[in-house]
Write a structure and sequence with these properties.
Layout (H helix, E strand, L loop, with lengths): L2 H7 L27 H14 L4 H13 L1 E4 L7 H12 L4 H7 L10 E4 L4 H7 L7 E4 L10 H13 L4 E5 L2 H5 L3 H15 L3 E5 L2 H4 L2 H13 L4 E3 L11 H18 L4 E3 L7 H15 L11 E3 L1 H15 L12
Parallel strand pairs: 1-2, 1-8, 2-3, 3-4, 4-5, 5-6, 6-7
């Protein structure tokens, strides 16, 4: 890969050192918002067609997507051994042959984080020691968020105490349906406090929220309460990340930045499986928020099988041939 293309994957930008401090609950920032569904769908539909990224530039964009993946296992049969194997993949997602073909031997890319259940955090922390890859943990009664608040807060403290650097909380959707914004704000703020130095990602479970207005409002309340990221889905809903929902959340990010000066990150999750999906969401971020939001401190993709497809596409770029899926095991 030529150096000019690699520069797309390795930009000279500063990391986002300033966390979202949150604000007081401000209903006027979102209460009267209107969302034009047909306009949102039209804009989302045109995004994948607005940019044509080919050859070495496509490879560079896919390497960038790889560095933004939260490599995830949230299965009922997870074991420390599976988590350790996933962490090995996180630290070395590309083979030596691919790294050589891409010209990345000196700076091999790694994924953005490894995301697991709280009980699997110690195994992940041990496996990733010294790698610089953070461990993210779901918490707060994932995926429903319906356990009592004291238990949800204690689950956060447990995961942080075990070494998690990022906590993916899930909001109580009933509070959105009933428009109980103060209650939602108070819960997310308490969760942010329980996180301490760990970053908070607020999962909105957008497939359950029914309307795009609800999505926008829940996004704004979560950010006002101090969320460092807003995330589309748990991956367990009937409908997970979609481009229209993501567009509404990203517009909320932009409005919040304009009002407060704080950059908040975005994480689509659930249903993203292919390299094409990765490209579509990267294009969405670039078009709507600009180059700065293509870095893992502001953009993550919740996925696991996507990495294997990115590998296959990169191998095709290097060798001219597609490899079998079994050549790219995950865990």
């Amino acid at each position: 890969m030529q150096r000019s293309a690699v520069a797309l994957a390795e930009p000279d930008v500063l990391r986002n050192s300033q966390r979202n401090a949150g604000t007081a609950l401000r209903l006027e920032a979102f209460e009267s918002v209107q969302v034009n569904l047909s306009a949102v769908e039209r804009r989302a539909a045109t995004l994948p067609t607005r940019r044509t990224v080919k050859k070495e530039y496509q490879a560079a964009w896919l390497v960038k997507a790889l560095t933004c993946i939260d490599l995830t296992t949230l299965a009922g049969d997870d074991t420390p051994g599976r988590v350790q194997r996933l962490c090995a993949k996180a630290m070395r997602p590309l083979s030596d042959a691919l790294l050589k073909g891409l010209g990345l031997e000196d700076e091999p890319p790694t994924v953005g984080a490894v995301c697991v259940y709280p009980t699997m955090v110690p195994a992940a922390v041990k496996a990733l020691k010294g790698s610089g890859i953070p461990v993210a943990s779901v918490a707060t009664g994932f995926p429903t968020g319906l356990t009592p608040l004291p238990q949800r807060l204690e689950e956060i403290r447990y995961a942080v105490g075990e070494g998690a650097g990022e906590i993916d909380i899930v909001i109580n959707r009933a509070l959105v349906f009933d428009q109980e914004w103060q209650a939602l704000y108070d819960e997310v703020a308490a969760m942010r406090e329980a996180c301490g130095e760990a970053h908070l990602k607020a999962i909105l479970a957008t497939g359950d929220l029914k309307t795009l207005r609800n999505v926008y409002k829940a996004s704004m309340v979560s950010m006002q309460a101090g969320a460092d990221f807003i995330k589309t889905s748990t991956g367990k809903e009937d409908v997970n990340a979609t481009l229209p929902v993501s567009l509404v959340m990203i517009r909320a990010l932009r409005d919040y930045l304009d009002e407060t000066g704080y950059r908040v990150g975005f994480k689509p999750a659930g249903g993203l499986k292919t390299a094409k999906d990765a490209m579509n969401w990267l294009i969405l971020m670039k078009e709507e928020l600009g180059r700065r939001w293509l870095e893992p401190d502001l953009f993550r993709i919740g996925a696991s099988s996507m990495l294997a497809d990115i590998e296959r596409q990169l191998e095709h770029f290097v060798t001219g041939r597609y490899s079998a899926a079994y050549r790219h095991p995950m865990a």
